């Protein structure tokens, strides 16, 4: 469950706007659509069905037309809180089943709340489709009688932990609250954040929950989308059976809210306990969703800052070197919209300089106007985004359900493409002059504690409510409590759990292989669902080849390689990629270097020509090198404010030791990166050889077409590179608890683990299998106990990293500060007793979860690329997924116990806590382990 501003943020869809480059693809893009059938049940529920038989899976999305904009002052955060309550119990489904059973069926489920709606969604193997109809409809129409005081209090703690994790314990976490309070007048539905205020949440009652349900959870206030491997006629019958008796509910009046008008500009500052960098935001009131001007405002955001040729980037980043990047974007909701400027500046930068630079960039935009090529580039990128946004059944379900509920047209994607493609340069300048130039706005200066001199001059202090960490936790202890006593709602249908349908059989995709004359191997999967391809060139080395004492070279090198070629400046290269609607990126991982990309299939030939140019003709731009080093320093400094980043870095150092490359952040440290020179990057360039490289591709293209498109890369030559042997040994930290102080932290970040095994080890799969019950998602024991049972955390998981080197097993969570010791005690006992508690029941659950989960795990092109990378890196068989399934089926209880005994010995594990020393340091000593205090860099204090 999560709070979200829009469906786009939830799913990663690139469908806020979509269009074409204005050339040959216009007709195709304008005609793009998602086929569907829509009908309305007698109770008013609107249902949209979409058939997609490409994978044996089904996605279900239910959107309730109620978000935080229906709340009242004093009862904020209630829509999101109700979403959490909905996942607890219902009349005909066992207690806790909603969160636990769906993953055990091989599915995934979640929900999200925005200003305007609450959405619930699942993706399951086809055989569990009717089970989802049962569980989803019961949550929708039959949950309210099961609400108890105990469940209410437990879920309060979970939501409070979510707020602590995302807001209170995060740099710039309070900025949204400050902006909303000052942009929207008191009483306006957007005056408060989606997650709301903790005092409001704490005051919520069972009566409040029931009143909210009665008012907003009627069938006619919702849309239901089912997409995937379904039969339309049969699905109609199932929907009528399971959803048809849900009460219609009262009419929910439309909200007619006048547009926001600011009488004057408001400038506010806030000292942030976690921030290490100063940040300024400027927010202008604009237009709501589906307004004709929203499409031009989307493009305006891209034009102002979305490329190296954009005016704001040009002034702030290149000329004045005040920040590593700048962001501008339109954010439209149901009732209003905002245009946002956001700059997180370099350490120590005066935000008055940043504001002056923004003004200078806008002046430049006014003088130069809209560049035709930039407009063409943005539309080409949006065309590709159109297809990427509907490349999975769940993403299609999200798009259909949102457009139906808020615009009455599930297929509005077609119209959106046309409207965006029709935006002209004159439209962009018109909306700029109407909504931005000379208009009032809200501006925030968020600065590190004690650096008020960096805030915008004459700004006023912003006020927010900050929770006090209390040592006494008696009033926050919760439990499952008694089940509710009630009379079941009568039904003409049997609402007991249906059986499984026919078992869908996962089948490994067909893989083709080849090679180029230069020694590069080729691996591909043909998938013609959408006219897209994704590719990845994997070159062994990565962080392993960083020079000693200059860790971060590979990462910085990957950034510099994208900053132009001999014949193209960084801006020219970016534009050339954008005009194709493509993306090309480089990054360095622990053991590999990657060149990745995606594009429409029709543009692969031209995209590969650019890849060749990037690889063979680096620009070595000194100015860009200086800029990137400054940006890296800013980023590393900023990570010092992030408790999760601190925990990750220190944990790896404890596991591997600071003399091993994997004990140091792949981006390096402030010390190691300071010494890096251009010559270091040129030396690293020699490691880019095709001899041991592999080209992976998935998408709408076959082997012959791929080889033809790759012909330019035949010119790429090089010698094989010898990789250093990095021995991994016990660092002697097991059995000790390490503590890093983050003053006033509202949560403690917990990392617990030890070195386990290599991804090449014969037991690698078996350890993965053995971990599933402990920490594999929301049905795992960690999640079920720490979140569902105790309300100590928002989430708790465990996993094993996959590398050729020996890698760690790790448990991760962020727990309520004053429940740190109790959480550690629970985890310690759980791991200690895991082997003895593992029974034949867990064997069957593990088998079921993984086997059925595979039916949906490899749907996307990105997931199919990961299959190819597994095969090439670890020399696995083409059908290794089938072999892995056979290994799982043959795994015995004795085998599980042996694996747990060998790799999950609690006494050998490192314990790391990143939290508030003042309240928790003495507490954690009661765990009975030696305690050592470290600073945020992992040095002993």
Automatic annotation (TrEMBL):
<dbReference type="Pfam" id="PF05193">
    <property type="entry name" value="Peptidase_M16_C"/>
</dbReference>
<keyword id="KW-0378">Hydrolase</keyword>
<dbReference type="GO" id="GO:0008233">
    <property type="term" value="F:peptidase activity"/>
</dbReference>
<keyword id="KW-0645">Protease</keyword>
<comment type="similarity">
    <text>Belongs to the peptidase M16 family.</text>
</comment>
<dbReference type="GO" id="GO:0006508">
    <property type="term" value="P:proteolysis"/>
</dbReference>
<feature type="domain" description="Peptidase M16 N-terminal">
    <location>
        <begin position="47"/>
        <end position="169"/>
    </location>
</feature>
<feature type="domain" description="Peptidase M16 C-terminal">
    <location>
        <begin position="205"/>
        <end position="382"/>
    </location>
</feature>
<dbReference type="GO" id="GO:0046872">
    <property type="term" value="F:metal ion binding"/>
</dbReference>
<dbReference type="InterPro" id="IPR011765">
    <property type="entry name" value="Pept_M16_N"/>
</dbReference>
<dbReference type="InterPro" id="IPR050361">
    <property type="entry name" value="MPP/UQCRC_Complex"/>
</dbReference>
<feature type="domain" description="Peptidase M16 C-terminal">
    <location>
        <begin position="676"/>
        <end position="849"/>
    </location>
</feature>
<feature type="compositionally biased region" description="Basic and acidic residues">
    <location>
        <begin position="485"/>
        <end position="497"/>
    </location>
</feature>
<dbReference type="Pfam" id="PF00675">
    <property type="entry name" value="Peptidase_M16"/>
</dbReference>
<feature type="region of interest" description="Disordered">
    <location>
        <begin position="480"/>
        <end position="500"/>
    </location>
</feature>
<protein>
    <submittedName>
        <fullName>Zinc protease</fullName>
    </submittedName>
</protein>
<feature type="domain" description="Peptidase M16 N-terminal">
    <location>
        <begin position="529"/>
        <end position="647"/>
    </location>
</feature>
<dbReference type="InterPro" id="IPR011249">
    <property type="entry name" value="Metalloenz_LuxS/M16"/>
</dbReference>
<dbReference type="InterPro" id="IPR007863">
    <property type="entry name" value="Peptidase_M16_C"/>
</dbReference>
């Amino acid at each position: 469950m999560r709070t979200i501003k829009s469906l786009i943020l939830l799913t990663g869809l690139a469908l806020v706007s979509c269009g074409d480059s204005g050339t040959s693809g216009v007709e195709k893009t304008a005609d793009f659509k998602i086929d569907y059938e829509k009908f309305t049940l007698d109770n008013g529920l609107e249902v949209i069905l979409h058939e997609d038989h490409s994978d044996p899976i089904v996605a279900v999305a239910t959107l309730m037309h109620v978000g935080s904009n229906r709340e009242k002052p004093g009862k904020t955060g209630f829509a999101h809180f109700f979403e959490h309550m909905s996942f607890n119990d219902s009349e005909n489904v066992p207690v806790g089943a909603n969160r636990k059973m769906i993953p055990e069926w091989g599915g995934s489920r979640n929900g999200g709340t925005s200003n305007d709606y609450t959405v619930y969604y699942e993706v399951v193997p086809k055989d569990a489709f009717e089970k989802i109809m049962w569980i989803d409809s019961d949550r929708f129409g039959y949950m309210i009688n099961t609400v108890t005081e105990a469940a209410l209090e437990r879920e309060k703690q979970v939501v409070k932990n979510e707020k602590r994790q995302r807001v209170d314990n995060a740099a710039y976490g309070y900025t949204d609250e400050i902006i909303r309070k000052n942009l929207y007048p008191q009483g306006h539905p957007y005056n408060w954040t989606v997650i709301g205020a903790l005092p409001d949440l704490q005051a919520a009652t069972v009566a409040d929950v029931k009143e909210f349900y009665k008012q907003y959870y009627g069938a006619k206030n919702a849309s239901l989308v089912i997409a995937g491997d379904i039969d339309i006629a049969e699905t109609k019958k199932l929907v009528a059976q399971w959803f048809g008796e849900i009460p219609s509910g009262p009419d929910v009046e439309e909200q007619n809210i006048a547009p926001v008008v600011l009488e004057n500009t408001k400038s506010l500052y806030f000292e942030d306990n976690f921030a290490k960098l100063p940040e300024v935001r400027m927010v202008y009131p604009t237009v709501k969703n589906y307004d004709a001007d929203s499409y031009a405002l989307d493009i305006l955001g891209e034009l102002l800052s979305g490329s190296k040729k954009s005016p704001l980037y040009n002034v702030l980043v290149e000329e004045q070197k005040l920040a590593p990047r700048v962001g501008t974007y339109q954010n439209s909701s149901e009732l209003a919209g905002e245009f946002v400027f956001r700059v997180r500046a370099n350490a120590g930068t005066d935000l008055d300089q940043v504001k002056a630079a923004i003004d200078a960039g806008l002046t430049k935009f006014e003088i130069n106007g809209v560049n035709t090529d930039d407009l063409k580039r943005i539309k080409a990128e949006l065309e590709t985004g159109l297809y990427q946004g509907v490349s999975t059944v769940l993403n299609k379900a999200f798009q259909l359900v949102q457009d139906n509920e808020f615009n009455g047209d599930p297929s509005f994607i077609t119209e959106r493409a046309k409207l965006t493609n029709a935006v002209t340069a004159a439209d962009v300048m018109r909306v700029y002059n109407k909504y931005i130039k000379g208009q009032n706005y809200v501006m925030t200066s968020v600065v590190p504690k004690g650096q008020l001199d960096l805030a915008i001059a004459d700004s006023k202090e912003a006020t927010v409510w900050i929770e006090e960490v209390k040592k006494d936790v008696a009033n926050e202890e919760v439990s499952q409590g008694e089940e509710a006593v009630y009379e079941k709602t009568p039904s003409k249908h049997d609402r007991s759990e249906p059986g499984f349908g026919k078992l869908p059989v996962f089948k490994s995709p067909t893989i083709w292989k080849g090679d180029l004359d230069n020694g590069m191997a080729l691996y591909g999967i043909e998938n013609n669902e959408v006219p897209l391809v994704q590719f990845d060139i994997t070159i062994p080395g990565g962080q392993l080849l960083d020079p000693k004492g200059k860790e971060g070279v590979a990462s910085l090198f990957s950034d510099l390689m994208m900053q132009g070629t001999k014949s193209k400046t960084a801006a020219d290269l970016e534009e050339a990629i954008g005009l194709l609607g493509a993306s090309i990126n480089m990054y360095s991982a622990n053991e590999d270097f990657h060149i990745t990309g995606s594009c429409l299939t029709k543009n692969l030939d031209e995209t590969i020509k650019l890849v060749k140019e990037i690889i063979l003709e680096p620009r070595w731009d000194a100015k860009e090198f200086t800029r990137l080093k400054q940006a890296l320093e800013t980023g590393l400094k900023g990570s010092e404010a992030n408790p999760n980043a601190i925990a990750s870095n220190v944990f790896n150092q404890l596991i591997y030791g600071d003399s091993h490359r994997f004990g140091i952040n792949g981006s390096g440290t402030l010390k190691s990166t300071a010494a890096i020179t251009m010559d270091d990057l040129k030396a690293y360039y020699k490691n880019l050889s095709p001899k041991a490289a592999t080209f992976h591709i998935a998408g709408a293209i076959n082997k012959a077409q791929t080889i033809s498109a790759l012909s330019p890369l035949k010119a790429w030559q090089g010698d094989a590179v010898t990789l250093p042997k990095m021995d991994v040994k016990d660092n002697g930290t097991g059995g000790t608890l390490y503590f890093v102080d983050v003053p006033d932290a509202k949560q403690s970040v917990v990392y617990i683990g030890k070195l386990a095994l290599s991804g090449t080890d014969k037991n690698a799969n078996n350890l993965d299998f053995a971990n599933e019950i402990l920490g594999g998602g929301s049905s795992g024991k960690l999640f079920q106990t720490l979140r569902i049972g105790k309300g100590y955390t928002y989430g708790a998981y465990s996993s094993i990293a996959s590398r050729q080197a020996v890698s760690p097993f790790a448990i991760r969570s962020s727990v309520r500060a004053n429940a740190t010791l109790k959480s550690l005690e629970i985890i310690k006992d759980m791991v200690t007793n895991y082997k003895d508690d593992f029974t034949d029941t867990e064997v069957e659950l593990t088998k079921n979860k993984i086997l059925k989960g595979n039916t949906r795990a490899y749907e996307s092109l990105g997931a199919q690329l990961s299959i190819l990378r597994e095969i090439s890196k670890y020399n696995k068989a083409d059908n290794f997924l089938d072999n892995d399934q056979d290994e799982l089926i043959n795994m015995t209880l004795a085998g599980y116990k042996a694996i747990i005994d060998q790799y999950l010995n609690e006494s050998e594990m490192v314990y790391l806590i990143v939290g508030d020393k003042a309240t928790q340091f003495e507490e954690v000593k009661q765990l009975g382990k030696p305690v050592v205090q470290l600073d945020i860099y992992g040095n002993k204090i």
